[in-house]
Predict the structure.
Amino acid sequence: MITLNHYLVLSAILFSLGTLGVLTRRNAIVIFMSVELMLNAVNLTFISFSSYLGNLDGQVFVFFVMAVAAAEAAVGLALMIAFHRNKDSIDVEEFNLLKW
Amino acid sequence: MEALVFYPFALVAVISAILVIWCRNPVNSALSLVLTFICLAGLYVTLNAPFMAAIQIIVYAGAIMVLILFVIMMLNLSSDVKRGIRHSVVTGPVASGLILFFVLYFVGGGEAGLHNGTLLAEIVNKVGHTEMIGAAIFTQFLFPFEIASILLLVAIIGAVVLAKKDV
């Protein structure tokens, strides 16, 4: 019998793996993909709560999260292209233009 | 029956999520992430959300990942072979381990499975999941839907302006 807790534990594992990727990788695109992984972990939580509690609102939230993720992907990748044009690298160690 | 679907999908999702942050080559990370998305879509089907599974495949595994792969291949990132790990090699595992520990602690604290809403598998099969989501978006959540369209428009303009060589 699969309960709600199984889905929540899976979502927690995926979210912490995404956090690990954001904090330890240097490549900005891999960091970006880790953020997508965290968003998907949250989506899994929303849909499993929605299904187990019998309320549709969580799935509508997931719809909006996907719209925001698409916008984030477009703008984030455009930022990376702009940065790559200036520094010829997308290593986050080099993202220090605003550092004092 | 549900366990037969849940455990393989969950196992493949976790392994491919580990591969996303483990692989040296960003193309391999992107393909592992596609596998994670497909496994999550399978789990959405078992959770009686087939429309969400469809847009997970179409929007995430289709549109967003194609965009990411396109950018990886356009930037030609072969120079990233030096050192894959940043200096926060201690802070990262500690922070993500703390997140995992506290979430597991709270999840283990009790059972939340109290079905008190109107959404049942029979209703989803009878009415149709797409129809239910559509009815909710175009009546109750109409204003957020319009805001999302403005957000997407701003994102399109912003992406074009940022990626253009000289405005």
In short: Chain A touches chain B through 75 residues (CB under 8 Å).
